[in-house]
Amino acid sequence: MAPIESILYMMWRGLAVGVLISAPMGPVGMLCIQRTLDKGRKAGFFTGIGVALSDLFYCLLTGFGLSFIEDFLHQNQNIIQLFGSMVLVAFAIYMIRKSPSSSLRRPVPQNVSAKKNILGGFLFTFSNPLIIFLIIGLFAQFNFSAPEIKGGFYAVGYVFILAGALGWWYGVTYLIEKVRGRFNMRSMKRLNVGIGIVILVFAGIGMGSGIIGLTSAEAHGARNDLFSGFMVHRLTPRYASGADSVGAVDDSRNARRLANSGWRNVSLELFDVGLDEVSADCRADSLQSFRLDFKAANHSSHPGRRYVYTDSASVRRKVKSPPWSLVAVDEQGSEMRFEFYTAEYSPTPLSSQATVFARFSNDGLTSEPRPIADGINAADGLNHFRLIREGEVVSLYAGDRSLKRVGEFPIARFGLLRSLRIEASPGSDVSVCDAALRLAIDPGSRRSHLSEEEIAYRLRHSVDPTEGRWRLLDHTVDDPSARLGGDYTVAIVRRPDGDYEIVYLGGAVISGRAWQPGMLKGLLRPTGHEGVYDLEWRDSEGLTLRGRLTAQRESISILTFHFPELGSRLRFGRLEEP
Length: 578
What we know:
8-stranded antiparallel sheet, 3 domains
């Protein structure tokens, strides 16, 4: 795209985004109106400047790909909504009780504090970070982050976002100033009360939504990554085919992106039994019932646009609504496939909207495309997908902010899960991240063979310096991805084969409900050197850590566990036996 075209492209999109961010006449708009009527146009416009600067700040966060903020908002949106609603309640009470200014008709310009009003507008808007979801939707709607635009031209877009927002507030305060002569002290008081009541309604709706979200079973399911009896396997997508024609890693989310410009399907491998992804702690039939979660963004989602690919004869072709698929394969080679694509959907003869469609196929049978019209981002934003296989039925859930049930699909033929992959058809472009597979755990593999009474008896009469009760003293964690699951207390007892069991007694914080006294936290295997052991350790989710882990008894009372690949160390101190 030529420089002039890029500038014009970003100019009108920036103006549109800036106006549309400011246009919803919510509590912020009420604040600007009230200040314009009470203190004059300058006070109202200065407040609008603060609002515009806050909106620009969130636009910059969104545009520069600080996705961890979006993740934080997704995970804590109900708490944030409650907090923001309480701020609105306080402001509404202030508005209702406030007496109108005596300078209603002729506000004194020198009494207007520009800094104070700008800061007030900024903080009032900044206290509601959920506006970032509106910005994400507008960016997607106007294709603001177009790949053909070079980085420098985005500055033009952000300048015009600010210009569009300021133009909106300039126009609003101008109109309010023109009609302010029709207001007297009584009508101003009524307006204050009316605005306060409207803001209270907004706050009540927000508090109700937040409370419902926090107490609903769906919210609890979203917060608890580990369900009792299941082990989480974090999956790292690997390029399985067509690696030369796919896009690069999206570093902002540690995502893999498939941009298929060729004529064959290309795929990302999520899981394969042959890659030793399944822990020995899982049941033998755990691949019969499983749960898969992942996030995906479809970058070829515009229903009216044609996407280019090159066919086998090197001819450039275009395709509308190219699909991408999640494919599960069993040990016999049978496939279950969910195909996703975006197209126009008309729920009524008078309305039409872009909607994600899902189609299921298995053993030659294909379902009708099912529209996912509610709670999902039909543009190129991230959506969360969940697949649950239970017996002869597979259930699909999807959503951008919360999961909603799409439906159940009967399975014609599918045995034990062998592999999972994401496929991109010609012309399609999809990013995948945050994939996790949950498999059923064999309860017997997680418990010590000794009862609590047997452990207590052994430790009271043991002369082995390694056996005993140990409590975490301190730790060093250099890798930010490593999280300490709690201040553990463990019992170490020797088995007949010479290895030592590390038995969990208490202290887990992360996934604490998944841990019960008597469960195995790991094993110590003697190396032939006094007090030095190979370590097998299960993390806060019950998953056995891989890599070269060691433990060393530094003295009769200090035992240190080393995790070299994580740059971490845990030191335990011996507890006196009662």
